[in-house]
Amino acid sequence: MGGLYGVLTLWTFQTYQAVISLRRNNALFYPHMNTAITLLIELLILFFVLALLVWAVSEIFAIYHAAPFVASGKQITEKMLDLGGVSNGKKILELGSGDGEVCIQAAERGASAIGIELNPVLVLFARFRARRRGVGKHCVFIRGNFWKQTFPADTDVVLFYLLPQILTKLWKKLERELRPGTIIISHAFKFPDREPEARDGKVLRYRL
Ligand SMILES: C[S@@+](CC[C@H](N)C(=O)[O-])C[C@H]1O[C@@H](n2cnc3c(N)ncnc32)[C@H](O)[C@@H]1O
Question: 179, 165, 171: which is closest to 196 by C-alpha?
Answer without folding.
Answer: 171
